[in-house]
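Internal QA ticket QA-208
Title: Verify multi-chain structure generation after dependency bump
Assignee: T.L.

Test input:
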Amino acid sequence: MFDILEMAPPDAILGLTEAFKSDSNPDKVNLSVGVYKDAAGGTPILECVKASERQILESEESKTYVNPNSGTPQYTQAVRALLFGKDHDLVDGGRAITAHTPGGTGALRVAGDYLHLLHGGATLWLSNPTWANHAGVFKAAGMQTNTYPYFDATSNVITVEKMIDKIKTIPSGDVVLLHGCCHNPTGADLTLQQWTTVAETLKARQLVPLIDFAYQGFAVGIEEDAAGLRIVCELCPEVMICSSFSKNFGLYNERVGALTVVAESSATAAKVLSHIKRCIRTNYSNPPAHGSAIVSTVLGDCQLRQQWIQEVEQMRNRINTTRQQFADSLTNAGVNLSNQGNAFITEQNGMFSFSGLSKDQVGALRERYAVYVVGDGRINVAGLTEANIPFVSNAIAQVVGA
Ligand SMILES: Cc1ncc(COP(=O)(O)O)c(C=O)c1O
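Actual output:
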């Protein structure tokens, strides 16, 4: 059974980190995986997380299963308050249900399982480009996937007309995945006007939006970053949202996320939840509790919540300062990564910059300078520091022949 196996291809992103770890070059720089790094190159635990863990350690009385397996009301309500705003009807109005999942990937997979089980004919439409794992997750759930145009890499702009034209041709009942903010890998987000046009088109075509929301707080702010999805929820009767707290709480290895579904009525939402609970039961049965306890403790305590908002702001500010330093350093090294110069780097949102570097240039960066970038040219800006920016800029100058 096992003898005949070939090696599986390495994961487009995680495979690079494995290669990075075994690279002996002392100057190596990892700009591949989407993990926040501080100015010293570390990924520290947030202070609000440490404080909440102390409280949890004192007060928790059991490690029994999470009941129901879709998560505690404290956690699921806190998730909806973050998505919709704390006083919104959808927070506890019954039309929106939430299931606690292991990370954002778990939320995407449960959404895929649910869609495959109950709407087996539906195709999932992804932006071109998108996060390298999206297609794999939905295909593993048995779904068909396809793509809609999103971005023009030569001019670094969203091709919104082409996107809308394509959406107008998608058969009713299909599902369209949108990135809530900090589009991965391009860092280019829709304006609020564009969100409205996209939502109206989805509604008119009777398509279901599935919003992947992995970076709330990394673009402009916690509330501001939810503005696009709030427009979609106003206009479209049915919406699916996948939240991740890996980045904005720094809880990468705790695996904490959520799948929220907005239905037309609370009776329908209750039925949806019952099927989602079945999908969970037959997959991992029960979610990991610790990360969700941290999130609900922080969000349920005024002081810790305030501290969290500040800590997210610090991460966001560092990324934005680094974007500016990187763009300046490239310009000083004589590199122009687009025909409009390097200003686009400072205009993108979130951790990533879609650099426009070709596959060959990315390969040369890795082989000659041990600078690790994802094959599509996506750079994790948070992996840059004042210390490594000159080295990386010079390496890029060499591979692009500036
Ligand atoms: C767009 C997008 N969606 C989902 C995820 C999954 O996050 P998690 O680690 O919580 O599974 C990521 C992580 O990199 C992401 O970039």
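Spot checks passed. DSSP finds 14 helices and 13 strands in the chain.
Status: verified.
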